[in-house]
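Narrative summary of target 7.
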Amino acid sequence: MKRNPTRIINRPRLYSFLLKISPMRILLVKMSSMGDIFHTFPALSDLKQQHPHVEIDWVVEEGFSEIAAWHPAVTRVIPIQLRRWMKHKGYASWQAFKAWKKNLQLEHYDCVIDAQGLLKSGLISRCANSPVIHGYDKHSARETIAHWFYTNSYAVDTRQHAVERTRQLFGKAFGYQPTPLLNFGIKQQFTHVVKNSRKLVFIIGTSWVTKLWSTSEWQALAQIAIAQGYAVEIIWGSPSEQEIARKIIEQCPLATRPGERMSITAIAEKLVEATGVIGLDTGFSHLAGALETPTIALYGPTSPTKVGLIGPHTLNLQLSPPLDCMPCHKRQCQWLPEKSTDTPACMSQIKAAQAWASLQEKMRAHS
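Modeled conformation, tokenized:
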């Protein structure tokens, strides 16, 4: 007799038992952003530890497919170009989406789990050839409408960090309680990299002008580090970031930067090699944390409470006491002229000496 997956999944004990003894094909939908991809890794580690037989395919934005493939629990990465299709709406994009959907539906999945909780991720979840879709309930999803796309929805406390929310969602969907231990599961992908106990990496770029740190403070930080005998390498990813790196090196000639823009994997290797990292609110700071390198991330206009770095080897550094306008979550500082590229006070008042002291503390604890 053919089993009914929906009936089984609605009987948690039987469902959990079947997961332990037989392979189950799961499709994960979590398409972006870079930080969100890293935040999903511990949930994958939990699931694979609890149910070693599951096979997990992952739908992710094409630009992040390289990252998703790092996790050993992932059987196959399914790239999607949803951002491009939505930006360039038209016949060509619609045809490309239909071809992608048709290809996806060639595979059957026992269930889908939407770990993003957005309208777009709910719609993509519905595209899969599966009778069961797990996701957040209407009070827990980032966009309430998303819960209408799920056959099974779960209440997950929205006050938790994004990493813990995702772990709780997986636990409720697949019948287990996550342990306190946090395992990103990707460090073993870089065992070939030799650690350099005297090397530091600075991550100077981020997507918002308001999240940038003063160039003068980066210069001061580089001078402190070099005076203490450390080598400093500055990671950049755009022409504007390359110019900031040039200005830092102009004042600190012993600091270095890559000659060309690097791949995500190459940057990951740099972060593993380093004994410490200082960065901003950006995906590469999250990557450094996921790789368990002592990392300090500087926050100003945004709050790290729910989406900051997590783990004992990381620290989210903010101005203390905070300004009354923090966090504003704005790309334009209300106290600066329109289109100004100046550093807002919430970032400029974080000083190099403070960042250095915080990094030293984390490096000592880690060693």
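The first helix runs from residue 5 to 9.
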